[in-house]
Design goal:
The chain is mainly β. The two termini are 23 Å apart. It has 2 helices and 8 strands, in the order βββααβββββ. About 32% of the residues have low confidence. The strands form 2 sheets. Strands 1-7-6-2-3-4 form a 6-stranded antiparallel beta sheet, with no helix packed on it. The chain has one domain. InterPro entries: Pyrv_Knase-like_insert_dom_sf.
Length: 146
């Protein structure tokens, strides 16, 4: 998308968005760990005047994540939000923890459209563009950074 969105999540509240939190996609699926806040790109002002200022608040522009465990992500998959223990994660492999929160996941698949965002208990994010692109689960792999 014009905002650089790779994945849109529904129902994960900004209180859960902080470094160290892990997002487990379904039972035994891909696991992503939040490593920082995604700073909004100044080019967003071309999309909508004032958008950068709005997205600079809290974690509104999203999060940067690293892959802890590769796997599939598909539309409608439950997401389990795992908060790190007080002494941190023991290793790179997530251990089963009690579910702390659950929501649904949607992929942003069309680079031509803009994400639809909303807030609240029953927040909803609509899949962008051609939903036929989402019939196949998104594969998440651990990629070395350059």
């Amino acid at each position: 998308t014009e905002m650089g969105t790779n994945l849109l999540l529904e129902g994960v509240h900004s209180e859960s968005m902080r470094e160290g939190v892990r997002l487990e996609m379904g039972k035994g699926g891909a696991v992503l760990e939040i490593i920082g806040k995604q700073e909004p790109d100044p080019r967003l002002e071309r999309v909508c005047h004032g958008l950068m200022q709005v997205l600079s608040k809290d974690w509104s522009s999203g999060a940067k994540c690293r892959v802890i465990a590769p796997g599939s992500i598909s539309v409608g998959m439950d997401i389990f939000v795992r908060h790190p223990p007080a002494n941190g994660w023991p290793d790179a492999t997530p251990s089963p923890l009690p579910m702390e929160a659950s929501s649904s996941c949607l992929c942003a698949c069309d680079a031509q459209s803009r994400p639809t965002c909303s807030n609240g208990e029953s927040s909803s994010v609509v899949a962008n563009g051609d939903t036929s692109l989402m019939e196949t689960p998104l594969e998440v792999e651990d990629v070395e950074e350059e």
